[in-house]
Design goal:
Elements: E1 2-7, H1 12-15, H2 18-27, E2 30-35, H3 43-52, E3 56-60, H4 74-80, E4 86-95, H5 104-120, E5 124-129, H6 132-142, E6 149-151, H7 158-166, E7 169-173, H8 183-191, E8 197-199, H9 221-232, H10 236-250
Parallel strand pairs: 1-2, 2-3, 3-4, 4-5, 5-6, 6-7, 7-8
Helix pairs in contact: 4-5, 5-6, 9-10
Length: 258
């Protein structure tokens, strides 16, 4: 069995076909999926999926890309995280690729999520793009190691991966690892301990080869796992077993519903 540790199933590209998406998961031996929140106004949609389907879980958080929206407070995040199907805080983090200018608001939002995660005792789902140095610095300053979490859709260097692992974080690989030009990322997938690895789709984005450019879905996480198995010269079954075990070890609140 596999787990898609990060997807956005409430997005229009997927929700309209949710039953066929679930059947495809079953066919591909993908047993569970974590539906990740990106804004508070859409959080009820994410939670609804987790409430409706036993094998779906949810997070609560606000993505760093979104400006001029309802800003989360520590109190709001902690309160919403009390729901039994909320297993994580995020996605949160820093993104200096899409946005420019004074991004102090983004760093403050990130700190808010880490503080909420510590109070709620939930792991963090962290997004970082073109901002690894500041991401790691804020994680250290705010004590993110107290709850751990996952560096989702990882695209950084092996050095960054090890720094995150030192703080109790897992490294999650998406369909990007299947891309031919992702040579650095493939080396990271070969090098890090299997017991610190997760797999994801980030659906509806970043479909793996051979579906690149099409709408992604949780069933395709199998192709991510296959690529990692080939890179590490191990069986697909070994990757499936390890990443599923890692998921439930990290997201402890998901165990109740497994």
């Amino acid at each position: 069995m596999l787990v898609d540790s990060h997807c956005h199933l409430n997005f229009p590209e997927i929700i309209a076909n949710i039953q066929s998406v679930r059947q495809s998961m079953l066919d591909a031996e993908v047993g569970h999926a974590l539906c990740v929140s990106v804004t508070l106004d859409k959080f009820p949609e994410v939670l609804s999926l987790a409430e409706q389907y036993e094998n779906f879980y949810a997070s609560v958080g606000v993505h760093p890309d979104y400006e001029d929206i309802e800003e989360p407070t520590v109190e709001t995040l902690v309160t919403l995280a009390q729901h039994p199907k909320i297993v994580a805080i995020g996605e949160t983090g820093l993104d200096y690729f899409r946005l420019t200018g004074d991004l102090e608001w983004q760093r403050e939002r990130f700190r808010t999520h880490i503080r909420a995660a510590i109070l709620a005792n939930k792991p963090l789902i962290i997004h970082t793009r073109s901002a690894a140095e500041d991401t790691l610095r804020i994680m250290q300053e705010e004590g993110a190691n107290r709850v751990g979490g996952v560096m989702h859709c990882f695209t950084e260097s092996l050095e960054v991966a090890y720094a995150a692992i030192e703080m109790g974080f897992y490294i999650s690989f998406s369909g990007i690892v299947t891309f031919k030009n992702a040579t650095q990322l493939k080396e990271v997938a070969k090098a890090i301990p299997l017991e610190k690895m997760l797999v994801e789709t980030d659906s509806p984005y970043l479909a793996p080869i051979p579906f690149r450019g099409k709408t992604n879905q949780p069933a395709y996480v199998r192709y991510v796992a296959q690529e990692i198995a080939q890179l590490r010269y191990i069986s697909l079954e070994e990757v499936m077993a390890a990443t599923t075990q890692n998921f439930f070890k990290l997201f402890k609140d998901a165990r109740v519903h497994a």
